[in-house]
Amino acid sequence: MSRGPGPRLSAGKRRALVAVSAIIGLASAAYSLLRTSHPVGFQYLAVALAAVGFAACAAVAWPRDGGRGGGLSGRTRDDDGGPADRPAAKWHALCLVAWLMPRSAGRRWLAEADSLLSEMPAARRRAAFRSYLLSAPRLVAIMWVREVSRRARLGPRRPG
Amino acid sequence: MVMRLTVQVQLVLQALLREPGSEMYGLELSEETGLQPGTAYPILLRLEDEGWVTSRWEDIDPRAEKRPARRYYRLTASGAVQASAALAAARRPTGIALRRLAGEGGNA
Predict the structure, then answer these.
(1) How far apart are CA B41 and CA A135, in angstroms?
(2) Percent of chain A at pLDDT exceeding 90
(3) Per-residue pLDDT averaged across B1-8, rounded?
(4) pLDDT digits (tens, 9 = 90+) for A60-106
(5) If we measure between CA atoms, which residue out of B61, B56, B60 comes closest to residue B44?
(6) Do the Cβ atoms of B42 and A116 come within 8 Å?
(7) Are A122 and A130 in contact (CB under 8 A)?
(8) Integer Cα distance of B46 and A142 in angstroms
(9) What is the mean pLDDT of residues A126-150?
């Protein structure tokens, strides 16, 4: 199998790098939100670290020669049949972000993203996809704050 | 809770207020406001948390329609009232701006 110019990460190493970057980013964002005694500057720094972490995810997951059209979850393809990993790589990046969220919130976010991106004109899809990824660190933190608040309101579960 | 009205939030509220009783889905809102979906989604979540907006999944068979179901958003009754008031307040010039205008009126 011929390879393009430059080294490519194996799928396993890429997944590991994405997972580590995402965990670092999420931990930074969560830390900034939980430690409210810290000055505001540290909170923004933590969010920035989270953004860098997710940017690393996007850089690794992004197809090298740019994606073109096609359904996000692989339901449709370009006329020329494009490489199989283009739409899959984008979909996997969104799945990773959804996995980092609370389960129900992540499912809803992913389903809405799939719906919107599949109906969006191909020329605008790339920018939309990028906007989803760039907003991911902050959104993951927001989702977890909402989930923790919701559970605190519900109170501890009673046995029986 | 007081909703912080950034420009993006105002755009979303204006789009939803265009036809208060009707529903809009994500792509429609994105096209109407000019906002990317990654920007609009947290705003819609916050509006839902505040009770200004409610949402529902479209009731279709994705296989028959050959597309995923859409998520529709619309303003609640109280949300429409509060959104209108909030947008009106946002457009009103602040006291400081008015004083500056009055002070600079002779220098124009």
Answers:
(1) 9
(2) 26
(3) 76
(4) 555 444 443 334 454 443 433 333 334 577 788 999 999 999 999 99
(5) B56
(6) no
(7) no
(8) 10
(9) 90
Q: A153 and B55 in contact (C-beta within 8 Å)?
A: no
Quick one: CA dihedral A46, A48, A52, A57, positive or negative? positive
In this complex, is the C-beta atom of A132 within 8 Å of any C-beta atom belonging to chain B?
A: yes
Q: Which two tokens stand for residue A49?
A: 């670290």
Query: Each residue of B44-80: pLDDT tens digit?
Result: 999 999 999 999 999 999 899 999 999 999 999 999 9
Could you please report the per-residue DSSP string of A67-91? Answer: --SS-TTSSS--TT---THHHHHHH
Between chains, do B69 and A111 touch, taking CB under 8 Å as contact? Answer: yes
Query: How many Å apart are CA A88 and CA A63, to the nearest integer?
Result: 9
The token pair at A155 is: 């109170």
**Helix A122-154 / helix B37-50 crossing angle, nearest 10 deg:** 30
Is A122 within 8 Å of chain B by CB? no
Strands B53-57 and B24-25: unpaired
Closest-CA residue of chain A to B46:
A142
pLDDT higher than threshold 50 for residue B104: yes
Q: Provide the percentage of residues in chain B whose pLDDT is more than 90.
A: 66
Q: Is B33 on the interface with A (CB under 8 A)?
A: no
Inspect the interface and report whether the beta carbons of B42 and A135 lie closer than 8 Å: yes
| Closest CB to B37 among A111, A118, A128 | A128
Rounded to the nearest angstrom, the minimum Cα separation between A35 and chain B is 22
ipTM: 0.82
Q: pTM value?
A: 0.64
Interchain CB contact of A100 with B (< 8 Å):
no
